Amino acid sequence: MARRALGKLAIACVAWSLASVCGCQDPVRDNRVDALGPEEPGVPVGPLHRPGQPCLACHAGDGPGDSVFSQAGTVYKTSDRLDPLPDAILHFIDSAHQEFMVGTNCAGNFFIDERDYAPSYPLWVNIEFGGVTIPMSTPIFREGSCATCHFDPPGRTSAGHVYLVPAPVTFPPTVGCQ
Amino acid sequence: MTRTKVVVGVWALSFAASACSSPPADQRTLYSAPARDVFPAVGDVLGSHCGSLDCHGHPARNMRIYAYNGLRIADVSGTGTTTDAEYDASYQAVIAIDPEALGAVVDEGGERPERWIVVSKGRGSEAHKGHTAMVAGEPADLCVLSWLAGVLDEEACIAGAEILPPETEPK
Lengths: 178, 171
Prior knowledge:
The complex is a heterodimer of chains A (about 180) and B (about 170). Chain A is α+β, with helices and mostly antiparallel strands and about 180 residues long. Chain A has a single domain (about 35-165), classed as Sandwich (Immunoglobulin-like), CATH 2.60.40. Chain A contains three helices and eight strands, in the order ααβββββββαβ. In chain A, the strands form three sheets. Chain A has a four-stranded antiparallel sheet with strand order 4-3-6-7, with no helix packed on it. A two-stranded antiparallel sheet of chain A has the order 1-5. The relative contact order of chain A is 0.17. With about 170 residues, chain B is an all-alpha fold. The chains are: A alpha+beta (about 180), B mainly alpha (about 170). At the A-B interface, loops of A face loops of B.
């Protein structure tokens, strides 16, 4: 009887050990995802959600987002407001001369599936809109989420949100976003 | 207990005690470091090649590079020029990395610079999340090496401070 109980205890210990080893969670990643908060009411999960947030917190391949991005972010019209810039084209070129272009949607969001473009860093990017092309002044060295370095307010550790022009200018009207 | 055993025991105890003792609190070990006065030229290179906000321009890094186009000391971003306080902070952070190897390289006139981890990681010749940040023999690398050798190559530093996309690289 005692031998049987000991056997069960041993099995339980092995199972617990295996569970703790296999159930590898990344608490840093989990905290980063939790810190993003809930979805905005009325905005479905998809290409328009969570503008301005670090996309690869969830879309880097280890969940919870299904899609895996190599680069993703949100572009705004100006430095002083969070008006999204739709229909901008982002031109990427990496150190291996691989180029890729992607457009922003009506939320200002863009995203590149890692199967379509896996850049060799450093990576340079220009934003093109209405015949104007603005380069990002420094290359990207490893980060796939714009918002990791570009968050508000601008300060010693952030360049502020990604924008096309610093001063307010008149942009074509944006028609809805759904 | 014989007299020999007692002597050996005392010796073993004193050896063990000395082996566990820490160095005196006032002990200082000094290593040579490359020059501070010419560092701004090197700092500009490191700022461009290492100091982006997603790499060594992050305040959590021990090798923190401050530059106008990355991490700032004051609460400004991407404007103005790199300040002397920022060069100083970068210098202090850089020379604190692997100081024994750095001192040996400096003492030997810049010989075998790859002994210093900043060079070996920067060249990507050992594991480095940022891969090759400074290609061996190119201006950025030559600038750092000349600084370590005590004879700054200003032209290399100026050229190395710019990091251009492939299509616009000067031929």
